[in-house]
Specification:
Layout: E1 2-7, E2 13-16, E3 23-28, H1 32-42, H2 46-49, E4 60-64, E5 67-80, E6 83-95, E7 99-104, H3 109-116, H4 126-161, H5 165-196, H6 199-203, H7 205-271, H8 289-311, H9 314-333
Parallel strand pairs: 3-7
Antiparallel strand pairs: 1-2, 1-3, 4-5, 5-6, 6-7
Length: 334
């Protein structure tokens, strides 16, 4: 899909039907024919137009015969079976003396703000257009990072109540999203540095101020992303330890059950041997007393072991109680 816009003197974009000089060409998932037509109208190489149509395209800059291209990673919200997650998609800004071209596989929130007039841009000022997009793209990263942090807190509250696989998978998706964001923000930072060396930015004071805002916002997004990524990594490690402890407790309980079930099995095994029992063929209890002593002793030993396993280490419990009392005393003293 290809749309054409041109700005008026107030910085508001107006949609036009056909290509004009100093217009903005917005291309969203264009076909090969649309790419070929735009290449003829604008004089931009078709390969350059199609660069951002590769989902794996890295953030970079390219300058070729009067054309400048900046490929940037942009945050995108994706809906999945386990909930929403975030990823990044490339978007390219290409400009020459004739026009500005933006190319992406999906619609971009920042460009929608340009179209609706929430942000003033000028189609005849390509450097200002690129810097304004970079600034709002960095702000969009910050907004998505805040949403990730809120979702992280909500999932943690659910995990604290019930440890389920669905919540753990959601946390893993958030961790993957932060990894994508961290990589993309660092790559965008290198592209921003390349734009700062463009002659129009270096000699234009207003553009320098705008670039400083872009740099500050992007660095803040990088720092915020690293903080959230470290917090989530520690959280995942903690939940991994909790799951491991729960597994150990479950295995302990299963061991106790196995030991308890072994007792009647053992008695039944003895009973099934060729062993005379009281009341059988005139056999008295005194004649088989040693056998029953062994059985009773075995049952008693098993019961003692089971109780010890269930109650745990008594010395450990006493130490834990002492620590609790000590903590209470410290709180009262404070």
């Amino acid at each position: 899909m290809v749309k054409y816009f041109i700005s008026n003197e107030f910085g508001k974009l107006e949609k036009i039907e056909n290509f004009k000089d100093f217009c903005w060409v917005d291309m969203v998932d264009p076909t090969d024919d649309e790419c070929e037509d735009v290449a003829k109208f604008t004089g931009v190489a078709e390969d350059m137009i199609k660069a951002a149509l590769d989902e794996e395209e890295r953030a970079r800059s390219e300058f070729d015969e009067g054309c400048s291209m900046f490929v940037l990673d942009c945050p995108m919200l994706e809906e999945g079976a386990n909930g929403d997650s975030y990823t990044t998609l490339p978007l390219s800004i290409i400009y020459n003396k004739k026009c500005i071209i933006t190319v992406s596989l999906k619609g971009n929130t920042v460009l929608k703000d340009f179209i609706t007039g929430r942000e003033k841009v000028y189609s005849d000022k390509p450097v200002h257009f690129a810097l304004t997009f970079m600034l709002n793209n960095a702000k969009r990263f910050l907004y998505c990072l805040k949403q990730i942090d809120r979702k992280n807190h909500r999932i943690q509250n659910e995990v604290d109540k019930t440890m389920k696989n669905a919540e753990i998978i959601q946390l893993l998706d958030l961790q993957n999203s932060l990894v994508y964001f961290s990589t993309s923000l660092n790559a965008n930072e290198r592209v921003h540095e390349k734009l700062s060396k463009v002659e129009a930015v270096a000699k234009h004071e207003d553009y320098q101020d705008l670039y400083d805002d872009v740099s500050i916002e992007n660095k803040q997004a990088i720092e915020t992303c690293n903080i959230y990524k470290n917090i989530l990594s520690v959280t995942m490690d903690a939940y991994g330890s909790i799951i491991s402890n729960n597994s150990n407790d479950s295995m302990q309980k299963l061991t106790i059950i196995t030991v308890l079930l072994a007792v009647p099995t053992m008695i039944a095994g003895f009973w099934g041997m060729n062993m005379p029992v009281p009341g059988e063929n005139g056999v008295s209890f005194l004649q088989t007393g040693w056998f029953w002593l062994v059985v009773i002793a075995t049952i008693a030993l098993t019961a003692i072991i089971a109780v010890a396993l269930i109650r745990g280490n008594p010395f450990k419990n006493k130490t834990h109680k002492k620590r609790k009392k000590k903590d209470k005393k410290e709180k009262k003293d404070n």
